[in-house]
Design brief:
The chain has about 250 residues and is α/β, with parallel strands linked by helices. It is built from 10 helices and 11 strands. It has 2 domains: about 120 residues, CBS-domain; about 120 residues, CBS-domain, CATH 3.10.580.10.
Length: about 250
């Protein structure tokens, strides 16, 4: 049995009194979508994510991360990778903290690392339509960055499709928004920069009648977290790693 111990990596950890700008810098520069938070005794308190980093746009801020902390998925080194993935699926996170009995963090496990192994070990019955999210919030290529940033914050989604004349033109993610200097200046200066200038244009898609295993293979092959689901020229949904994991037999 493969366990969390086999996949532990060093993950960013902050104190609950650290400033949100410090967390935002980590989330901007690293591959992590979550930062875990501890108290003065190094006990796990929870996590904050990229969405929280997007809420504070000032370059300098005295706001601490304490008010943003959410309950964190926490596992033990001996837990099976299936149990770990299920917890991430239920929490809708891309990582889980690995703790000891204290509970002190000894590392973390990333869903991107577990996902290829899990889908190779389990049958994934059904089609994309069975597990995709059909309720999709999209933005338009001409929408301003400020509006898109607000939409992501309000919706809770990590990635939004970008459409032009009802056709898929690209996608925009929280990572795109928090990383691009153009985005930060557009929000700070309230200018009219359009989202099409920073969106990802080369998008991999899949059809609703394709087997869900095909979606899993595309996600792994192209190292993406989400696939728009299209029926001809029409977008009918999206599917991500968490959706695929719901199909585990």
């Amino acid at each position: 049995m493969r366990t969390a111990q086999d996949f532990i990596v060093e993950i960013p950890v902050l104190n609950h009194t650290d400033q949100i700008t410090k967390a935002r810098q980590i989330l901007r520069d690293d591959r992590f979508r979550e930062v875990y938070v501890v108290d003065r005794k190094e006990n796990l308190l929870g996590y904050i994510d990229i969405t929280d980093g997007l809420r504070v746009t000032a370059t300098k801020s005295n706001v601490t991360i304490e008010g943003f902390i959410k309950d964190a998925p926490a596992v033990h080194a001996g837990d099976s990778i299936e149990a770990v993935a299920k917890m991430m699926r239920d929490y809708r996170t891309d990582s889980a903290a690995v703790i000891n009995s204290q509970p002190h963090i000894i590392g973390g496990v990333l869903l991107a690392d577990l996902f290829p192994v899990i889908i190779s070990r389990h049958e994934l019955p059904g089609t994309v339509a069975d597990q995709m999210s059909a309720k999709v919030i999209s933005v338009a290529t001409e929408d301003e960055i400020q509006k898109v940033n607000a939409t992501i914050l309000e919706s809770g989604y990590t990635t939004l499709p970008v459409v032009a004349k009802k056709r898929l033109a690209g996608i925009i993610s929280r990572r795109d928004l928090i990383s691009a200097p153009k985005v930060r200046s557009a929000i700070a200066q309230h200018n009219q920069t359009r989202i099409e200038t920073v969106m990802t244009r080369n998008v991999f898609t899949i059809g609703p009648d394709e087997p869900i295993s095909a979606a899993a293979e595309l996600i792994v092959a192209h190292d993406v977290s989400l696939l728009p689901v299209t029926d001809g020229d029409r977008m009918v949904g999206v599917i991500n790693r968490h959706d695929v994991l719901r199909a585990l037999a």
